[in-house]
UniProtKB/TrEMBL annotation:
The chain crosses the membrane at residues 12-32. PANTHER family: GLYCOGENIN SUBFAMILY MEMBER. This is Nucleotide-diphospho-sugar transferase. GO terms for molecular function: transferase activity. It comes from the Eukaryota. It comes from Eremomyces bilateralis CBS 781.70. InterPro entries: GNT1/Glycosyltrans_8, Nucleotide-diphossugar_trans. Keywords: Membrane, Transferase, Transmembrane, Transmembrane helix.
Length: 345
């Protein structure tokens, strides 16, 4: 059902997005005639852009992932807009931006248009072209088509030029600066892999001898208390990793074994399996409600959670999601558009 409110909001957004995209394109070609690497040169070779800042002796970065399948450039593309809002919050917003010049990498698979890459790059993100990551033989059955490309975000584990990366889904609202997350003990201290033979599967690649994976659990719904109660399942939208090609090789070996993990929730189910709590590489959780909450509500906002994870723009969520974070997200999007209009006109 399309409500009148939805039509109005979408039309406004389409007009705003089209106008700003035209302005941006014009500005880009006017001031930046060089063209970044062409789509045809996309490979698994990852460029290192600028030397990443060193914090506590570690090279650190933020990262996100855009895999939109909207190819008509004049069509409203909420995930592209969400990536722009995220980049604005991490790099430019006076309250939430990085104080330490920590870069934002955005992974993009080959089907994301050059036009969208250029806009994100012109707004400060570092575009990292990557190939899709899929099992050698198809066996996955994701809950929705939207999850098809989600394993691709694991390519972050191959970026060994960084010591720590905070991965953040693009449907995220920030309430404060995230830089201090890199000072958390659960981010600095590397874990030693266990050796319980009962947890070693002979058809999987060997585990690395050390690892680091710190995340948040799924809160299970919008009516959770504050702080939310920690569960055993990893939420794939917010996690801190130490890039390690041996760990990526392990994940790929798991991905290539049909039904080794339930595939409905794709990469987050695989991560929950690989880092199961009774296995040899158990995951660690951030303190609940401190850095991130999924299914957020007003109590999370009042409790000071740094990032709130949801598709705030989606009117299908309107009957259950708390209005407060929704209204905050729309204000953040408007602030982002106003910021770039001021810079570019
Ligand atoms: C692209 O989207 C616009 C806006 O929705 C629409 O008017 C146009 O017909 C579409 N073009 C194509 C080729 O589908």
């Amino acid at each position: 059902m399309i409500t009148p409110v939805k039509i109005r909001a979408n039309q406004l957004t389409i007009v705003a997005a089209t106008v700003s995209a035209c302005i941006l394109l014009f500005t880009f070609f006017k001031i930046a005639p060089h063209s970044p690497s062409a789509a045809s040169s996309i490979s698994t070779q990852i460029p290192l852009f600028t030397a990443p800042p060193v914090r506590n002796g570690l090279k650190v970065a933020y990262a996100s992932f855009l895999s939109t399948r909207v190819t008509n450039e004049s069509e409203y593309d909420p995930y592209f807009t969400a990536s722009r809002v995220l980049a604005y919050q991490l790099l430019h917003h006076p309250v939430t931006k990085t104080r330490d010049n920590i870069p934002l990498l955005i992974l993009v698979p080959p089907h994301v248009s050059e036009h969208k890459r250029k806009i994100l790059a012109s707004e400060g993100a570092q575009i990292v072209p990557v190939d899709l990551l899929l099992p050698d033989t198809p066996w996955l059955s994701p809950a929705t088509d939207r999850y098809d490309d989600q394993f691709t975000k694991l390519r972050l584990f191959g970026l060994e030029q960084y010591d720590r990366i905070l991965y953040v889904d693009n449907d995220m609202l920030l309430t404060r600066c995230l830089d201090p997350i890199f000072d958390e003990p659960a981010v600095m201290e590397v874990q030693t892999t266990g050796a319980d033979p009962a947890s070693i599967e002979s058809d999987e690649a060997p585990l690395p001898s050390t690892y680091l994976f710190t995340g948040v659990s799924d809160t299970g719904g919008g009516d959770h208390p504050f702080p939310p109660v920690e569960g055993d399942d990893i939420n794939g939208g917010f996690f801190l990793l130490r890039p390690d090609r041996a760990l990526l090789a392990y994940y790929k070996s798991v991905l290539n074994i049909p039904n080794r993990f339930p595939s409905v929730f794709m990469e987050q189910s695989m991560l929950t399996y690989a880092h199961r709590r009774d296995g040899n590489m158990p995951w660690r959780a951030f303190e609940m409600g401190k850095w991130n909450t999924n299914w957020p509500n007003e109590k999370d906002v009042e409790g000071g959670t740094a990032t709130l994870h949801d598709k705030f723009w989606d009117s299908l969520n309107k009957d259950w999601i708390d209005r407060k974070p929704v209204e905050m997200w729309w204000r953040m999007q408007g602030q982002m558009e106003g910021f770039w209009q001021g810079k570019r006109e």
